[in-house]
Amino acid sequence: MRYIRYAFLATLGFVLVSVAFANRGSVNLSLMPEAFERAIGLSYSIELPLFVVIFGAIISGLLIGFVWEWLREYKHRAEAARKTQEVQVLNRQLKREKRRNEAEAPSAQKDDVLALLDKAS
């Protein structure tokens, strides 16, 4: 299994490097369209290789998707935490009841067993 993982990572690395070499041309990224830049008077642009833009878009898309999914699953995590807390409370109550029953009447439990055996015969 380890070799399959290494083969997959090597293949992925090769593909990413080949995409980077194939898209080395520079592109100009602007903050806003030219019409808005002229109207507002704010112009910001940067020149980057195309592969940086492509990889940046992929990474930012993944991050946005992870955050979106994390926020969407909040109600499920809260429900699971509430259920876990409820189970812990019930376990503590059960242990307390068992200790109390054992301390109150250890002989009564034996008598109950004998009574059940008498009814069965």
From TrEMBL:
Residue spans of biased composition, Basic and acidic residues class: 99-113
Q: Does the keyword S-adenosyl-L-methionine apply?
A: no
Q: Does the keyword Cell membrane apply?
A: yes
Q: What are the GO cellular component annotations? A: plasma membrane
The Lipopolysaccharide assembly protein A domain, residue ranges: 45-94
* Swiss-Prot/TrEMBL keywords: Cell membrane, Membrane, Transmembrane, Transmembrane helix
InterPro entries the record matches: LapA_dom
Q: Where do the TM regions start and end?
A: 46-68
- Chain segments carrying region Disordered: 96-121
Protein's name according to its UniProt entry? Putative integral membrane protein
